[in-house]
Amino acid sequence: MVLSARVPDLGALQLLLAVARTGSLGAAGRELGLTQQAVSARVRTVERLVGVPLVARGPTGSRLTEAGALVADWANDVLAAAERLDAGITALRGERDAHLTVVASFTVAEYLLPGWLVALRTDQLADRRTPSSVSLSVHNSERVAALVLAGEADVGFVEGSEVPNGLATQPVGGDTLVVVVAPGHPWARRRRPLTPAELADTPLVAREVGSGTRQVLDAALASALPAGTRVRPPALELSSTAAIRGAVRAGAGPAVLSALAVREDLAAGRLVRVEVTGLAPARTLRAVWPAGPAPAGPVRELLRIARTRLRTG
User: Fold this and answer.
1) What crossing angle do the helices spanning 10-22 and 36-50 adopt, rounded to 10°?
2) Residue 176 · residue 122 · CB < 8 Å
3) Distance between CA 170 and CA 90 in Å, rounded?
4) In angstroms, rounded to a whole number, what is the distance separating the alpha carbons of residues 262 and 27?
5) Is 24 in a helix, a strand, or coil?
6) CB 168 within 8 A of CB 291
7) Are 261 and 111 in contact (CB under 8 A)?
8) Which InterPro entries has this protein been placed in (predicted)?
9) Per-residue model confidence as pLDDT tens digits over 210-231
């Protein structure tokens, strides 16, 4: 159904009912927080819109004309329906804001999201709002995208470069992959950088296929090496960054991991970074959500916090 251009807006209908209640344009304006000049202008506008006089002005006040009283009677029903609609929308927004389901790849979930979620709760409490309850599950980037696409999460965070159709995406920050070894590994004492060919010929401790880290490393090696160059299979495939860090420290071999994930190990000397020439495995950390309207409520707040935190370090 398409409404004609003659239907007044809700504010005009509220004004008409206020004039009926108070018997005065000035009193109606005070009730609605409008000047008498603004009230008079709005009455003239709605009368032009409807096409008949709605308010009769006199020396002792104002009253509705017969047509005005009829429109006001209809307006009661419209405003009552609008109040029900407003209450329903408020309830929907409250339900949306009450719970936030997040899925994230391992690096984001283990090293970034805890701080973001604390900041979200702090902001909500500062605004005197009830904090959203949050459910967080951790998967590789491929699985994160699949869960968001299936509608099982409000927002996801991925590390890979590939995002399936049906998802909207927004970069929130960047990360770099680095080669790390245990302090006792021969590469820890190496004076010259590795070459991409040497890295490709070394069995690594690696993430599983489908992880963002594996996607970016495979793409970087494919770009740096001559076509057809063989890349050795991993010595170990592990499904979490924490497990790989532990395996490398135990001497299982080199690994390529997020700089965000290993910065404390590097600072403490538990791991050693090995430079690689001609290889720059940088990646973009992205938020994903179902294609459609822009994120609102706590999802929008969380994205703002993520961008701010990654930009400022």
Assistant:
1) 110
2) no
3) 28
4) 68
5) coil
6) yes
7) yes
8) LysR_HTH_N, LysR_subst-bd, WH-like_DNA-bd_sf, WH_DNA-bd_sf
9) 888 898 899 899 999 998 899 9
